[in-house]
Amino acid sequence: MTTAPKTLFDRLKYIGPSVIVTGSVVGSGSIVMTPLLGAAAGFVLLWWLLLSMWSKPIIQAEISRYIVVTKKTFLESFSDMPGFKTTINGKTTSWLVWFMFIGVIPSVAGMGGLAGAVAEAGNTMLPSISIEMWVVACCLFTWLILYWGSYQSLENILFVMVLLFSFITIVIAFSMQTTEYEVSISQISQGLTFNFPTEFLPLALAVFGFTGISYGEIMAYTYWCLEKGYAQDTSNTEETKAWIKTMQTDVWVTVLFITIGTLPFFFLGAGVLHYVPELQESLANNSFWDVDVIGALQNMFSLVLGGWAKWLFVILAFFVLFSTLLSGTAAFTRTIADYLISTGLILEQKETRSYLIKLIAFFIPFFSGVFYFILPNPITLLIIAGIWAAMGLPIVNIGALYLISKLDEDLQPKQITKTILWLSLMLQITMALLIIYDMTIGF
């Protein structure tokens, strides 16, 4: 058994799950959806982006607290939720687990959008290879890496990608301030006035679902915590608390990486793309799905750094979007395997979980590619997945409040944390109602 680190410096040595989750978030959220929101609305929705990035990690940390203490998986924990339950092969499952299981479909559709975005970047680099062939190649390589790799190899690969991505975005942010597109204090102030133009609601809700930690990443994070070793089998309360602090440190590293990797792209979208006439025509009348993602985003780099920088963006976009595809697929291998086992659809034996993980590592890229070929529009697929992710957040928030209430009092969070969770839940329920209203009646 590994002894829990006691100092901040030692805890930083144990970060890892945050790196994988960041790799899963920065592609679709930072590179695609965030600049699109800035391009459509300008700086007005900066506050919304910050809320998206900073309001959800507390849910992630509190559900992970329960996982660290109980050593249960995410779905085993949610199977204990009150309400209607099913029992199959001796496994009792809450209705919430089945609800989240349904969410696999739009989530895999979003992975198809990612595969398409990676393919568009690849086609820009090597036009001789068609977008369709790039989709096939990306899905194939994703499967091979996950089939032969391990948790540690995945963490190492994504660690390099996340550090490189973070470094480049910081350079871009500072470079932007030396050009005519520099961001002023007045523009930032405008973005913090809490205005909300309703004509951008579908895109804003998708951004909230996909930017920062979505409920899918919250779920996946708990599995990475288990594989990293945060949930040590110890009866020592102080030792358990030390592992909770280690996990919380890792969560805040996630917030730091995501903020660094996201804000510069919003500023580029709001400060550069918002003033590109051709793009504004595509964004008119909520035609977000008509946008040429890679072509539009190349403008951000070339207008700020010069024409040569469009190639820097294409290379960056390719590897970052691919890291998101890789990380997201890796998360699905754990969550779907747990769905099948925790619901009783598959009986668990000694090697069942590891066998399912390798099997699902093939099927997720395969069906992601299928979704893209059915609907070859990355933006549309990402918006579908993002809106579903936004609707799923209240469920996970309710779960966090319920599960932490079951812990021993000395292992529960402070009252201020519980209050923030309640406020977060009210916000998410409001968003879910807005989504339903917009889909049924419309604004």
Give structural notes.
The protein has 443 residues and is mostly helical. The chain has a single domain (8-440), classed as Up-down Bundle (Amino acid/polyamine transporter I), CATH 1.20.1740. It has 19 helices and two strands. The chain has helices at 8-12, 17-41, 46-54, 57-70, 74-78, 95-102, 104-125, 131-148, 151-176, 185-190, 201-210, 215-228, 237-271, 277-283, 293-305, 309-342, 352-374, 378-405, 415-440; strands at residues 85-88, 91-94. It has a two-stranded antiparallel sheet. Strand 1 (85-88) and strand 2 (91-94) form a beta hairpin. Helix 2 runs parallel beside helix 9. The longest helix has 35 residues, at 237-271. The protein starts with 7 loop residues before the first helix and ends with a helix. The model has no long low-confidence stretch (mean pLDDT 83).
Keyphrases for this structure?
single chain, mainly alpha, Amino acid/polyamine transporter I, two-stranded antiparallel sheet, 19 helices, globular
* CATH topology descriptor: Amino acid/polyamine transporter I
Ranges with pLDDT <50 over ≥5 residues? none
Count of extended strands? 2
**CATH A-level architecture:** Up-down Bundle
- Gap from first CA to last CA: 56 Å
- At the first level of CATH, the class is Mainly Alpha
Helix-strand pattern: HHHHHEEHHHHHHHHHHHHHH
Number of domains: 1
The radius of gyration computed from the alpha-carbon positions, rounded to a whole number of angstroms, is: 21 Å
Dominant shape: globular
Helix content: over 70%
Name the structural class: mainly alpha
Beta-strand content estimate = under 5%
SS summary, helix count: 19
